[in-house]
Design a protein that fits this description.
By secondary structure, the chain is mainly alpha-helical. The chain has one domain. Helix content is about 55%, strand content about 5%. The protein contains twelve helices and four strands, in the order H-H-H-H-H-H-H-H-H-H-E-E-H-E-E-H. Helix 6 runs parallel beside helix 8 and helix 8 packs parallel to helix 11. The structure holds 2-acetamido-2-deoxy-beta-D-glucopyranose (NAG). The site of 2-acetamido-2-deoxy-beta-D-glucopyranose (NAG) has 5 residues, from loops. This is cellulase. One of its GO terms (molecular function) is cellulase activity. Belongs to the glycosyl hydrolase 9 (cellulase E) family. Pfam families: Glyco_hydro_9.
């Protein structure tokens, strides 16, 4: 990368490739559980077919205003910014609780909730602030972050389907990078914890001294529990997004041990993960 700015286009391309590769890999390993005895040699895997289906899958996942030529004809426009997300947020905020409490035996053996619902409310608040710039969402952000802290759910290095914390910290830090004091004045302690925890997350995944993850012998990020590919994929995604915005702001991550992590270094770590996931 040298001194040049990271090209947004190459970043987007890399993300798409990561997502497709993860998708191919997950569907491949899911398929293997059922067809283990008929397992094909790797050279017989039809990558073109797998990629075609993956792209179709992602087409089906799109939200917003869909183009006329989209192939999932049963899907309609969704999440168009018409206030419907505000409605969903207000509903969740009014009737607070964990979804697993209303569907206990159906969801919990599979998708148990470990991190409460406060992180989802904070995550929704942070996104709605970004979309509307209405400071009322910052009050919800402040409140739910405090509740997370007092419930001891705080886990700066987690980001996935259950825990959104690293995402909340990085999203808010990115907003702080562009808005400065017009945002920080609304946040508890001027929002310093968001930057502190966003940087602490990056410092905790450095291959030379990882503290929130482990690296496999081949160099892939690993965290305990099943379906590991979600971990390197989600961690790579937010690390890359953070790197792009730090680069724009000409800033770097400072670790408590004195290490400086440049955006270029962050991209190199993400690249190593994408390369391994693509194998
Ligand atoms: C890393 O691996 C060690 C040894 O297996 C284990 O004790 C530790 O909990 C792991 N750390 C993380 C963050 O997964």
């Amino acid at each position: 990368m040298g001194q040049s700015r990271l090209s947004l286009c190459s970043i987007v391309l890399m993300l798409v490739v990561t997502l497709i590769m993860v998708m191919v890999n997950e569907s491949h390993s899911a398929g293997m559980e059922f067809t283990n005895r008929h397992r094909k040699k790797p050279s017989n895997i039809d990558y073109a077919d797998a990629l075609t289906k993956s792209i179709l899958f992602f087409e089906g996942q799109r939200s917003g205003k869909l183009p006329g030529n989209q192939r999932m004809t049963w899907r309609k426009n969704s999440a168009v910014y018409d206030g419907s997300l505000v409605g969903v947020f207000n509903f969740a905020n009014t009737y607070q609780g964990n979804y697993k409490d209303s569907l206990p035996n159906t969801v919990c053996p599979f998708y148990c909730d470990f991190s409460g619902f406060q992180d989802e409310l904070a995550w929704g608040s942070a996104w709605l602030y970004k979309a509307t710039h209405d400071p009322v969402y910052l009050n919800f952000l402040n409140t739910n972050i405090k509740r997370l802290e007092s419930a001891n759910y705080v886990s700066y290095a987690e980001f996935g389907w259950d825990n959104k914390e690293a995402g909340i910290n990085i999203l808010t830090t990115i907003q702080l990078l562009s808005e400065g004091s017009s945002l920080s004045k609304h946040l508890s302690n001027d929002g310093k914890e968001y930057r502190f925890n966003a940087d602490r997350f990056v410092c905790s995944i450095l291959p030379e001294n990882p503290t929130s993850v482990n690296y496999s012998k081949g160099g892939l990020i690993h965290k305990p529990a099943g379906s590991n590919m979600q971990n390197p994929a989600a961690i790579s995604f937010i690390t890359l997004v953070y790197a792009v915005h730090l680069d724009r702001a000409k800033q770097a991550v400072q670790c408590s041990d004195g290490t400086t992590v440049t955006p270029q270094r962050m991209v190199a770590i993400v690249k190593s993960q994408v390369n391994i996931m693509s194998r």
